[in-house]
Design goal:
The protein is 30% helix and 31% strand. By secondary structure, the protein is of the alpha+beta class. A six-stranded antiparallel barrel has the order 2-5-4-7-8-6. The chain has a two-stranded parallel sheet with strand order 1-3. Helix 3 crosses helix 4. The relative contact order is 0.22.
Length: 202
């Protein structure tokens, strides 16, 4: 059986353009930190390294899973790219700090990550692999919304989220927000790009 996040985790990935309050459990990620303008080459290089490892993990799991293990799951769909972004007072893309991430299924453990990392270093060398870590993050109670369109228009969607927070007497936690990229930027016109925006609240 193939685990598909679009079907099994609809509450987190099937968002609408109306914001909602969700409870986000502890999740596993492979992640890499970065800083600077996301339009520059370093940003795309980090994405490339992350995806190379993500597919190495998928193939390792698929090739080594034994009958009866993993609750009958023998394969899984690679999750979409995500980003954690720090809000800065003076918007200067060169000063942006971020963390790029790809979620991993619950059944992927540290040993699979370590072995896949070892494999991909040999098959597709890249010094950025040294910066990728395997970690768990729990967003907890959050507000999220589906943003359709240009990244530059995201403030309009954040206004909707902030409005819901006020109605529900919720306070945003910290200055970091999450973006989940459901569209391939290189294959989707800007006005049709889909991005889930999320921030934690209390």
């Amino acid at each position: 059986m193939k685990y598909e996040w679009k079907k099994q985790e609809k509450n987190l990935y099937n968002s609408k353009q109306t914001p909602v309050v969700v409870e986000v459990p502890k999740q596993k990620f492979i992640s890499i930190k970065g800083q600077g303008n996301p339009n520059e080459e370093d940003f795309s290089d980090r994405i490339s390294a992350l995806y190379s490892l993500a597919y190495a993990i998928k193939m390792l799991f698929k090739n080594t899973i034994k009958a009866g293990e993993g609750d009958g799951i023998t394969d899984f769909t690679v999750y979409p790219l995500e980003g954690l972004w720090e809000t800065i007072e003076e918007f200067d893309k060169s000063k942006l700090k971020y963390k790029l991430m790809i979620k991993q299924p619950d059944f992927i453990a540290q040993d699979i990550f370590s072995k896949a990392l070892e494999n991909v270093k040999k098959k597709k060398p890249n010094e950025l692999y040294e910066e990728i870590i395997f970690e768990e993050i729990e967003d907890g109670k959050s507000i999220q919304v589906l943003h359709v369109g240009s990244y530059d228009d995201e403030p309009n969607s954040f206004d909707k989220m902030n409005e819901l927070a006020g109605e529900c007497n919720l306070i945003r936690i910290g200055v970091v927000h999450r973006e989940i990229y459901l569209s391939n930027k290189n294959r989707t016109s800007e006005e049709k790009q889909k991005t889930i925006l999320r921030y934690s609240v209390r």
